[in-house]
Design goal:
Elastase, domain 1, 3 domains, five-stranded mixed β-sheet, four-stranded antiparallel β-sheet, globular
């Protein structure tokens, strides 16, 4: 497939652009591989290096393209440029301020985001000798050549920059949300690949939520005789297919449809990927439901009854229209899921919080749910036992975040909007000035925002952004501002010790009027609950998951072992 990525100038060999730097050092072989120069005239003439597993330069090209595409999707949904979270470097680095990408960073069956290096590290390994699935025994598997694995790891990095405190595992849903959300973004990107969508529509007869594609020729009475009679897995709903085969699973590593509705399933799940699969299943249940409802008229016009389950060859025109509808619906849902991040609390996220954020963000953008997206999401979350706190029902009006009772206004005209082309020094100075004003505003309204005024030295402005988003209702962009305030509170030993995290997400109108204050207050029993969860990690969470979170920050390398 071909990816359309934004043009960057200058783009140095690596590639090294404004957002990321691909550094192809292989520590296992202790060598650097030759860097690809995407501005080379021969490479440009061929629209890039042709796909090949044997050329490290293609590996570099692929990770650059997929990471860039994922960043672009986030920028469109959020209505702003991505700014990586600032980190203090001991030494001046030529890649400072960029996300590092190591295509061959480790010799193991793993790929992960390292928040300390601020890097994506992709592993390579040998397929099983005795049970390699569709691979050759001992074949080298490169995780950097899996489109969805690259998108998944990039999402971890983006989420760390948008909500840094989500790296603190303060409840059982936090790490699961990181994993589930990264899977959601990666899986939705499958549906932007027209050729794959058309093939899946043909193979499933339009039922994209099927796990397998029908074979090109039906098996005979005596079973399968030729390859065309063997059904294949549906590539759209599985993630890391080759990886799963190589380690002997005989299935994709994860799936969009692998978890059937069960209102009690969450009660017994503690491992982050297992628990995150419930969130993935809820989102894709809503997506496929919306797709089915949007295309009922097409089936009716074609004279095909879905109720009777007719097995017919779909007309190319119908396939084309179905493909357009599924890609459009997938784009809408992916944008909804990403945009919902701005409506999430700054810390201690739960699946129920995310449902409320999704519903409120979409309601703010499109008041009339004429396509039934919000209704489908609510039903899917309800069927999987995801219950938001402090709501009276699953009705839309109950799930919406409640605006503050009294009017609060921030003088946005006193805040400086940084020039996109500003230098790092200029940008840092503007950030510091704006953060000081936002800190003062938060402390002045500490009681309303659930913050402890006496603890103001431990109240920090984690991030703030001026946002311009498309609005289908008005056909004009909507301007607003999002600010994330985080509070840290050191707990005495008699209350469990450790650091408790709280805070508030503030969403302002263009005139500075506060629209929402999404709170996680430490002025209740939240510190005790977080201390209890740390104890729970020690006592009952599987050892691998505990090792991944015992430091107080999610360790994705440990968490992703064989996942």
């Amino acid at each position: 497939m071909t990816l359309q990525v934004p043009f960057e100038h200058p783009l140095a060999p690596g590639p090294v652009g404004s957002y990321l730097a691909v550094v192809d050092y292989d520590p296992g072989n202790q060598c650097y591989y030759e860097s690809v120069d995407l501005n080379d005239r021969w490479i440009l003439a061929n629209a890039g290096i042709a796909p090949t597993e044997s050329d490290p330069r293609f590996h570099q090209q692929m990770v650059y393209a997929v990471v860039s595409e994922t960043i672009q999707r986030f920028e469109y949904a959020l209505g702003r440029r991505i700014r990586w979270r600032r980190r203090k470097y001991r030494h001046k680095s030529p890649f400072q301020g960029r996300l590092l990408v190591f295509p061959h960073g480790v010799q193991e069956a793993n790929a992960f985001y390292d928040p300390n290096l601020h890097a994506l590290v992709f592993g390579y390994f040998r397929a099983s000798e005795t049970d390699p699935g569709n691979n050759l025994p001992n074949q080298t598997i490169f995780t950097c050549l899996a489109h969805d694995v690259v998108a998944h790891e990039t999402t971890h990095a983006l989420l760390d920059s948008i909500r840094p405190a989500f790296m603190q595992p303060t409840n059982i849903d936090v790490a699961a949300f990181h994993e589930g959300f990264a899977d959601i973004v990666a899986l939705f990107q499958h549906f932007s690949i027209k050729e794959a969508v058309l093939e899946a529509l043909r193979g499933t007869g339009g039922a994209l939520f099927s796990e397998h594609l029908s074979p090109a020729a039906p098996p005979g009475k005596d079973g399968v005789r030729i390859t065309a009679q063997i059904g294949q897995r549906n590539p759209l709903v599985g993630m890391a297919d080759q990886f799963g085969d190589a380690i002997g699973l005989h299935r994709p590593l994860r799936s969009a449809i692998g978890t059937p509705p069960d209102a009690k399933a969450l009660e017994s799940m503690t491992e982050a990927h297992d628990r995150g699969s419930i969130l993935v299943a809820a989102i894709f249940d809503a997506f496929f439901t919306a797709f089915v409802r949007r295309t009922i008229d097409l089936w009716r016009i074609a004279g095909i009854s879905r109720e009777r389950g007719e097995d017919v060859e779909l007309h190319p025109d119908l396939l084309g229209r179905l493909c357009d509808e599924v890609s459009k619906t997938a784009g809408h849902f992916q944008t909804m899921c990403i945009r919902g991040l701005d409506y999430c609390p700054p810390v201690d996220i739960t699946f129920g919080d995310y449902l409320r954020a999704l519903i409120t963000a979409d309601y703010d953008t499109v008041r009339d749910d004429d396509l039934g997206y919000r209704a489908a999401l609510v039903d899917a979350f309800r069927l999987r036992g995801i219950r938001p706190e402090a709501v009276t029902s699953y009705s839309e009006e109950s799930l919406l975040w409640i605006p503050p009772e009294s009017k609060h206004r921030l003088k946005l005209e006193t805040l400086q909007r940084p020039d996109p082309n500003a230098s790092e020094v200029e940008f840092a100075a503007i950030e510091k000035s704006n953060a000081r004003q936002l800190h003062a505003f938060a402390c002045a309204n500490a009681k309303v925002f659930g913050l402890n005024h006496f603890n103001r030295r431990h109240i920090a402005v984690d991030s703030f952004h001026f946002v311009v988003r498309p609005n289908p209702d008005t056909l004009l962009p909507t301007s607003e501002m999002v600010a994330v305030i985080v509070e840290r509170l050191e707990q005495p030993e008699k209350k469990g010790g450790g650091t408790a995290f709280g805070g508030v997400t503030l969403l302002f109108n263009e005139d500075g009027t506060l629209r929402y204050a999404v709170r996680k207050s430490l002025r209740n029993d939240r510190p005790e609950k977080q201390a209890f969860f740390r104890q729970l990690l020690w006592e009952s969470v599987p050892r691998g998951a505990y090792e991944a979170m015992k430091t107080g920050q999610i360790d994705f390398r440990a968490l992703h072992q064989r996942y």
